[in-house]
Design brief:
This protein is mainly alpha-helical. 52% of the residues lie in helices and 7% in strands. The protein has helices spanning 17-20, 51-57, 61-83, 92-99, 111-132, 138-149, 151-160, 190-197, 201-209, 224-242, 244-254, and strands at 9-14, 32-37, 212-214, 221-223. A two-stranded antiparallel ribbon has the order 1-2. Helix 10 (224-242) packs antiparallel against helix 11 (244-254). The radius of gyration is 25 Å and the shape is elongated. The protein starts with 8 loop residues before the first strand and ends with a helix. 22% of the residues are buried.
């Protein structure tokens, strides 16, 4: 299975000489030519797939839901790749796994990557503190490390980078699905948009001091620990796909 981000399009060109000769003429054998071209210079044309069929496919809630999730992962991966060179070494599928919590009830979740990322985070921070603070004893090093790797600090670093908007933390409900360009049963007014997407300074301060943070445009509130877990899972994702150097680069990017 080809990966979406580095797919090479194989174009098969077959000479149809038999169709160009009159009946009874000697037909030469067909030849096959194969070329590999980058997707940037190609156009995909699907025959036998009408506009009406394409419009109907957009009405399948599960298909559109999975496509949306994958596009979210691709967007985050692209953002990370633009931020540091090693950001492109992780696959979009791995990023999606790191962004998906168990509450989504998918066949994958961030749990395994979180365990790996948590272990590597503690190792990397311990090594950095050991080399940077030679005069500190083990108690001081342990205390400083705990302040750097605890959930509150990871939560602050993640929200500073706006990672919470990419997190998938809610089970898909087909009954709440609204196809793009189709009538929706929930009507959003200007007053609703204002109250949903903005908070006064005092309310925002109270919210961020609590245990939850608004995650994305679907008005979903995320637990602080969930956001911290995603950071650890992303560390694990870079460790699996890119190795130590990629994981360290991600840590440096997030702060």
């Amino acid at each position: 299975m080809h990966r979406l981000e580095n797919l090479l399009v194989a174009i098969e060109l077959r000479s149809r000489l038999a169709d160009s000769f009159p009946e009874g003429a000697e037909v030469t054998s067909q030849r096959e030519y194969f070329f590999e071209l980058p997707p940037e210079v190609c156009h995909l044309k699907i025959l036998g797939f009408s506009k009406e069929i394409g419009s109907s496919v957009s009405l399948f809630p599960s298909v559109m839901h999975r496509l949306e999730n994958l596009l979210v992962a691709i967007e985050l991966r692209s953002r990370l790749a633009d931020s540091f060179p090693e950001g492109a070494e992780v696959t979009s599928q791995r990023v999606l796994e790191a962004l998906t919590t168990e509450r989504c009830n998918e066949r994958f979740s961030l749990e395994r990557l979180e365990v790996l990322g948590d272990a590597f985070l503690k190792f990397a921070v311990s090594r950095h503190l050991f080399l940077a603070h030679e005069a500190m004893d083990e108690g001081q090093l342990t205390l400083m490390r705990s302040k750097l790797v605890n959930n509150m600090n990871l939560y602050k670093l993640a929200t500073r980078r706006k990672l919470q908007v990419y997190i998938r933390d809610r089970e898909f409900n087909p009954q709440q699905f609204c196809a793009l360009g189709r009538p929706c049963s929930v009507i959003s007014t200007n007053e609703m948009e204002s109250s949903n997407h903005t908070l006064p300074d005092s309310r925002l301060l109270n919210r961020t001091r609590g245990s939850k943070l608004k995650g994305n445009k679907h008005e979903h509130w995320l637990q602080r620990k969930t956001i911290a877990d995603v950071v650890e899972a992303l560390i694990g994702a870079y460790l699996v796909d890119g190795g130590f150097k990629s994981a360290i680069s991600f840590l440096q990017w997030i702060g």
